[in-house]
């Protein structure tokens, strides 16, 4: 565990004596994710922030800000699954429910093996990466770093989508991808039943103009489908030619 993680956990354990580190970390996730989503001016998210922040004194809120500062510094020094490490090292995971996080170096190795050659995509098309059980976003972060390593502009031409049934995980992923400038949409949802509770786009999603680009891609795909359908229809309407086998006629034969 590095010094940033040590400092984070140390502050986390001493913010508010009446609350456990588990509760404080969850409150920090709610407030930080809400603050990073403020560009969208969502009233329901702003209300979440207000409801949690009113439970803390000014000095305690400043300590929450210190946790965000440590997170920013840790991610600036090295792109990684920093909050996933905190979640594990501080014993905040739901181990009884089978919740275990993939170590980041394993996620990075997997991303290098799975991701192909993004430069082979058609010009203007978006490279899409999805993790249906994203946890704190480690695999998505690893995917972004592999694209960066392969000189693909992931902040402009890639979209990262993550889903998780645990709201804490969804918020951790949202926070880290936001701070790393990754165009992403994070869903708090059950990927088996497809029930969604909420979803949020990162500021990187907005900066990349992803909304309009996705609509353009959808239109192009629709036009391609129409052209293919028309070609198939025209081929079906063509008269079928029946070629009988040729036969050498003998003298006196008609057929």
Spatial arrangement of strands, main beta sheet: 1-2-3-4
Q: Roughly how many Å is the radius of gyration?
A: 26 Å
The main β sheet shows up as: 4 strands, mixed
**Broad structural category:** alpha/beta
C-alpha geometry: elongated
Mean pLDDT: 89
Separation of termini?
Answer: 92 Å
**Helical element count?**
11
**Approximate strand percentage:** 5-15%
Number of domains: 1
Order of helices and strands: HHHHHHEHHEHEEHH
Total count of strands:
4
Task: Write up this protein.
With 255 residues, this protein is of the alpha/beta class. It has one domain. The chain is 54% helix and 10% strand. It is built from eleven helices and four strands. It has a four-stranded mixed sheet. A hairpin with a 4-residue loop joins strand 3 and strand 4. Helix 1 packs antiparallel against helix 4, helix 2 packs antiparallel against helix 3 and helix 2 packs across helix 9. The chain starts with a helix and ends in an 18-residue tail after the last helix. The model has no long low-confidence stretch (mean pLDDT 89).
Task: Give a concise summary.
The chain is an alpha/beta fold. The protein has helices spanning 3-12, 21-36, 43-53, 58-77, 82-89, 104-114, 138-149, 154-157, 167-179, 203-207, 210-237; strands spanning 127-131, 158-164, 184-190, 195-201. It has a 4-stranded mixed beta sheet with strand order 1-2-3-4.
Top keywords for this entry?
255 residues, alpha/beta, four-stranded mixed β-sheet, 54% helix
